Amino acid sequence: MPIRPLARRRLAVVVLAAAAAVSLSGCSQVVEAFNSISGTSNNAAATPAPNATPAAGADEKPFDSQFSYDGSVQMTYEVADGLQIVLDFWAVDSKRTQEWHADNPKTFGFAVNVKDTRVDEKAVLKQKRRVFLANVTISSQTAQTSNQVGSPFQFSADPRTLVPTDTIRSNRGLLINSFQGGLLVPETTINQLPQDTYGLTLQFALDIWVEGTANDDKSFAQQTVYPVIPIAIYPRETEAEGSTGGSSDGTTSGDTTQGNTGTDGWTSTGGTGGPTTP
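The structure assignment produced for this chain is given below.
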């Protein structure tokens, strides 16, 4: 999956969600909190141009999307030596992404975690370099046969408003180190798109604080990373037509294990159909 290079910049728009404190096991409450502030018209990060055009006379891969052909995708980015941000993104309803059409609801889930490869995953927190997630933003851009462009889905929130109050947090945001934290949004929905849409690109912007040296509160530095998720939108079949392709029952194909590394450093691999488990 090609990843477009994007200049780093701070986002000016932050929408604070007045979500009630809930446990991550209370999925319906988290979903309600998330969906109540998604799909707004706030201007977020600049959206990338579509990275594909529909292939004339061809049903296969009209819009290049690893997510659409695997049903899930995992993206990793090294924010410091041996320290990786991990974004898992998966289809929820329909899990068959070939059934993601312009006129029906399309539900996905995602999770943001971090992995410090310098230490064992079961190491105590003071041995790990901490990463705090201060803000998460999603903007979108359609690819349409009419060459029009829309931004039908936008979201921006402080992740501390989406998780229980007893999670580890500070004025820098929500701690997302494995075992001690992480952000899980089990599902949110993209609704109706223009009828001629054949692709939708979601651009995440994750504002983070990264600890340079483990257990050193003075070593934090701020940065923003930009994972991009292209999604194929399939036309509805007529009775005479066969399958339009796409995976997509939420399983991972066997040819994506090596992953694709974009020019901006993001590595994309077939996902596991859900959040990463340490």
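Interim note for the steering committee: DSSP finds two helices and 13 strands in the chain. Residues 27-35 form the longest helix (9 residues).
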